[in-house]
Request: fold
Amino acid sequence: MNRRIPAGVSVTLAGKVAFVTGASRGIGAAIAVRLAEAGADLALTARDRDGLARTEAAIKPLGVDCWTHGADLASHAQVRSVAGAALRRYGRVDILVNNAGITFPQRILDIGLKEWRATLDVNLLAPMLLAQAFAPGMIERRSGKIINISSQAGIGALDEHAAYSASKAGLHLLTKTMAVEFGPHNIQANCIAPTIILTDMAEQVWPPGPKTEAMRARIPLGRFGQAAEVADAVLFLASPLSDFITGEVLSLDGGFRAR
Reply:
């Protein structure tokens, strides 16, 4: 059993190793920084090596160890390679954050097999392969956290996102199955499903205009989310504060699904 955090003490992940995918920018970079602020050592991967270097530079002043390794998670071989390299570097991974994701907006009648397979490989298969790599050590230590970053598109249909929605819906059930299979070993697996999060990329997709305002109007809190708010949720799920929470899909949506 993990040691509980006494009342009034800040959340700490000191002594833990966290592996974060898609850590070169946006939500992934924010997650990496937040976990580092809590004291975790970081193993980070993404396709964008320059972006990884920027994330590493942001983490360096925080006094934790940060290791980066470029990888394309659409490649099964590269997924296994980066996982093995992280284990050789640290000997273990205590917290797995599957954040990397891709999408190719296409209507169902236009979806190409290449795009379909790439979407499911990155969004669904890579999290499973990484769990296969890191869960055995978690089982041996009887402690571990798996946090999968999904989307509201995995809960409700989104026009021109059939492959993306299918991958994220699959990730929800994969998360629940992880919770069932790994729970007896004191491993918690949970999923976070954000609505629109205002990263640089999202601001390009949702510029000021009628479409953006119509979407914002559907959110009771009246705004889109921030990457830091996803990172805060990850920190909670990575900490002992969530030790009795597993198999959940947390909607980080400002009340969007409450209507």
